[in-house]
Known about the structure:
Elements: H1 4-10, H2 12-23, E1 28-33, E2 39-44, E3 46-49, E4 52-57, H3 62-69, E5 72-76, E6 88-97, H4 100-110, E7 118-132, E8 139-145, E9 149-155
Antiparallel strand pairs: 1-2, 1-5, 3-4, 4-7, 5-6, 6-7, 7-8, 8-9
Helix pairs in contact: 1-2
Amino acid sequence: MTTWQEFAAEAPELAAAVRKRFAAARHHVLATVRRDGSPRVSGIEVAWRGPDLTLGSMPGSRKALDLLRDPRCALHANPGDGSMADPDVKVSGRAVEVTGAEHRAWVAEVQPPSEDSHLFRLDLTEVVSTGVADDQTHLVIRLWRPGQGVRTFRRA
C-alpha cells in the first residue's frame, strides 16, 4: 500500500490536481463493500492530516463498519457543476483505522460530534483523473498505480 505522501512524491503533478479537486467541494462519495459483497455508496468528507488522506465517520456508521470488516474502498471527488472544466477524480485503496494517540489528537483538534467517531487513513492502490483535452476533442485519462508511475490514455 502507498500513503498519500508517497503517491505525491512519485506523481507530484497528478497529486496536486487530485488534491485540488477534493478541496473544491466539501462532500464526496465513498464506495465500500457490504457484508454480502455488494457495493454501498455514502457521502463523506475528506481531509489531509500530515502525510495522509483521511476519512472521518460517526461511530458505528454502516460505512465505518464496512471499512472495519473489509477495508477496500473507492473515493470519488464531487464532480462539481458537470462542465468537466476540471477533471473527474477517483482514488481507490484500503482504509486503515487510526487509533490511540493519533486518534485522540484528531478528536481534540477537529472535535467531531462524538469522541468515538472513526478516523481512517487511505492507503492508495489507484488514482484516476479523467478530463477533457484543451481542444475539446477527446478525453485525457491519467492513471497512477504504485510503482508504475502515471500512464496517460486518450479516448475520442
